Amino acid sequence: MAALPSIALALLALAGGNAAMALSSASPSSFMPAGPTGTSYPSGFDMKKSWGNLSPYDDADHFGVDKGFPTECELSQVHVLHRHAQRYPTTWETDGGGMEAFAYKVGNYSKKNPDKKIGSGPLTFLNGWEYMLGEQTLLPTGAATEATSGALFWSEYGRLLYRAGKGEAIYDPSMNTFPNGTSRPKPSFRTTSYPRILESARWWLSGFFGNVGANSSYSSYDLVIIPEEDNFNNTLSSTSTCTNGSLAGDVSVEKFAPIVTKNALNRLKEFLPSDFNLTTLDIVSMMNMCPYEYATLGRSSFCALFTEQEWKDFEYITDLTFYGNNGFGAASGRAQGIGYVQELAARLQSRLINSSDSSINYTYDDNTKDFPLHQPMYMDMSHDDIIVSVLTALGMQYFNYGPHGLPDSVPHAIPHNFDLKKITPFGARLFSEIWTCPKDAKLDNLQEMMYKNPDLSSDSNTTDYIRFVLNNAPVSTMGMEACTGAVNGFCPLKDFVKSVPKLSEEAMYQEACFGDYNITTQVGNGQPIQS
């Protein structure tokens, strides 16, 4: 989760004991915990699916178009943009920083009042609680998520792309050939240098290549490691250079969070000493503790403290953050993601990149060692905010709430398509599928399973399509001018490639990332233009 500006932190901290006194609250005797982690609410609600970008991976149900495969078409290529998986929290105040501050607050109170129990009722566990989380590190659960993702990609896509035959369970270098039978170069993939991203890439590739006998699969591939550091161009970490116009989500959260946490604050403060001064930021931090302890320890006592509605509102807090910081509500939303879109187009055109007007680092993209061409598949390991900004740069209006951004002055979460648990859970993945189809192919007749990949390489009477698939659900191309008339998300490839220069213009990279403008609230279309 992104950081809140200092004014937001101050407001969240102040919205504690005194500010909440006038609000109605439940007495200790009337408190009913919401229920343990899982589908244990009477409604069947599963809180794990309301943790936003902290949710465990799950396939998305849909993004406006049907799932399935066009079995008469050839799957020619797949480009994977992948998020790292479960990790320790970041140091942002509304993430790990806030949790550490809450832990210090609890410990400091106990130290100053050794004869007092700090918690009672549902908060009794605080009397023996210890903050066990570190910072930023990929967790074993995250490694498992990545390895599983790589293995599933091999099973669902790799077997088709490399034409694995009967009984061929895992990838073999002999499969890596061009249609004419000549050998391709060793496959190469990309990651940033940030430890959790690099480790996620290694685990994903271990799953994809099989890693027989649990030995290292490093020899099966090359890995380009692009530095992730301030002021260094990197399309997989574009906010390192494009820091402008990416705080509107935080401003929205400072409005929304005090509204939706007030009941929990009043309910839970009854089980703490009267002079503890529980704040809105504490409540958000306690809610954050649930998914992080779940990922680290397998369970958390914090999870049962909150109601179904409070978890839905918690997810909306994460949605507001990313929508306003990296999505259509961010003045630099399109700019943050356009570099990857430009690289995708270059790969599709089999060309190197020798100049940059975005986050592209052409030192890496002007040679086939670091920016290989003609591979059946590509995998780039990155962050959640990059996936969000790429969807924005593509102009996928399915995720755009409207001209004034995602509402933040509402009493509770409202229906919306920008749903982080479906967009960027831990281990999220965006596939850009390339399909070669007969001219008369029926793209509205999709099948659930594709057992064999047709070879249409010698057929000239074909059309190439691109389809974007997010967490195993095809994404609607609504709003993408190049894809007008697309059936089930299949967009003519040549039209998409031709549209990228216009998408680059619409991203307004130089102005959005480095312009002197004063936009602090959400915009309507991911550009530095106030509605």
Automatic annotation (TrEMBL):
Keyword Hydrolase tagged: yes
Ordered alphabetically, the record's keywords are: Hydrolase, Signal
According to its UniProt entry, this protein's organism is Penicillium argentinense
The source's superkingdom equals Eukaryota
Q: What is this protein called?
A: Phytase
For this protein, the record's PANTHER family field holds: MULTIPLE INOSITOL POLYPHOSPHATE PHOSPHATASE-RELATED, PUTATIVE (AFU_ORTHOLOGUE AFUA_7G01240)-RELATED
> Which CDD domains does this chain map to?
HP_HAP_like
Q: Name one GO molecular function term.
A: acid phosphatase activity
Tell me which positions the record assigns to the signal sequence.
1-19
Which is one Pfam family of this protein? His_Phos_2
